[in-house]
Amino acid sequence: TAYEIPKRDWSSDVCSSDLREAGEVLLHAPRFVVATQGSTVVGCAELAPLSTSVAEVRSFVVSREARSRGIGRRLVDWLTTRARSEHFDTVCAFTHSPSYFVHLGFTVAPHASLPEKIETDCRNCNLFKRCGQFAVRREIPAVQTSIEQVPLHG
Predict the structure, then answer these.
(1) Which has the least CB within 10 A, 43, 82, 132, 137?
(2) Cα(79)–Cα(91) distance, integer angstroms
(3) What is the mean pLDDT of each run of 10 residues along the chain (154 residues)?
(4) Of 100, 119, 88, 98, nearest to 17 (Cα)?
């Protein structure tokens, strides 16, 4: 069954950085993680590098039917693990639901604390300085490697 998506101009009420063209999604497909239930996609999220030290969790969505099952947490945890392995120091998100991210260990932060995001997406957005989104961030602790000290006899 084919479904027709109604045409709508979202530009007046949606931050332009929230909209993704098909070409952009295809170009950045390796940055996405997708949650499925059987053959149905129930969630996705992208880890987008903003600088050498900051990456953003974006394009994050879980279907209404799949919410409250821990899928969102697993997507964010997976992307945070990936960010750590790629040597990022901070993961951030811009959201209308900051309490969800706070529950996952993020803290609400001033937008100015993430200048990489402002320069990458916000400055050219039609809703710049009035989007209503909250900036959240989580510092990524470095992986601790330790070498056990063993006395040498010899």
Answers:
(1) 132
(2) 9
(3) 38 44 70 88 92 93 89 94 95 93 94 86 78 91 66 61
(4) 119
